[in-house]
Amino acid sequence: MKGIIFTEFLELVEEKFGLEMVDTIIKSSELKSNGVYTGVGTYSFGEMVQLLGNLSKETAIAPDDLLYVFAEHLFATLATNYPGLMNTYSDPMDLLSSIESHIHVEVRKIYSDAELPTFTVISRSDSELVMDYQSSRALYSLGHGLMQQTFNHFDQSADISYQKLKDDGTKVRFTIRKK
Ligand code: HEM
């Protein structure tokens, strides 16, 4: 997993829960990196699983809810760091249906070792987009939050529901309805 995800995650933890919480979750995890991350580095996904799990334990907030909130913070950083990618779009439905064919393709050019999910568009109309998320990392709640933020970014709103196609969350169907 890319360092930018870790640095943004720890920044969010500091912002919402304080620097002590950052220390606590790093100390209670077994991290090869010792909790020191650089934006361009690559680290084991297992480190994120531990940090997220320990934050969940400390705060009594479910990991999926923490990921959803994290998405808000992460989206703002992605939009700032990659304005060229965001500015290609004027419509959130267009952006979301192009993650697989454009956005993450560009991300892969920047970070050849990025571990990205797969999004498959199942159906698309003016008001509804159905797409399947697939990833061994089961970060569908992060995806859910990023989708919601995509709508906020364009000052639009949507009802976004999902259904797990696999119980472990490695395959999830999203239904996005423009409001
Ligand atoms: C992961 C970039 C938009 C869904 C990632 C990663 C990067 C990235 C760098 C981490 C890869 C790694 O750690 O190895 C971007 C950029 C975007 C963008 C630059 C826009 C300019 C989106 C949007 C969604 C999305 C709109 C909404 C569904 C995800 C998910 C992951 C991810 C769910 C986690 C990895 C996984 O589930 O396996 N993205 N992304 N991304 N991205 Fe994007």
Automatic annotation (TrEMBL):
InterPro entries for this protein: H-NOX_domain_sf (IPR038158), Heme_NO-bd (IPR011644), NO_sig/Golgi_transp_ligand-bd (IPR024096)
Single GO term (MF): heme binding
Domain Heme NO-binding: 2-161
Protein name (record): Heme NO-binding domain-containing protein
Species for this entry: Aureitalea marina
Lineage of the species this protein comes from: Bacteria, Pseudomonadati, Bacteroidota, Flavobacteriia, Flavobacteriales
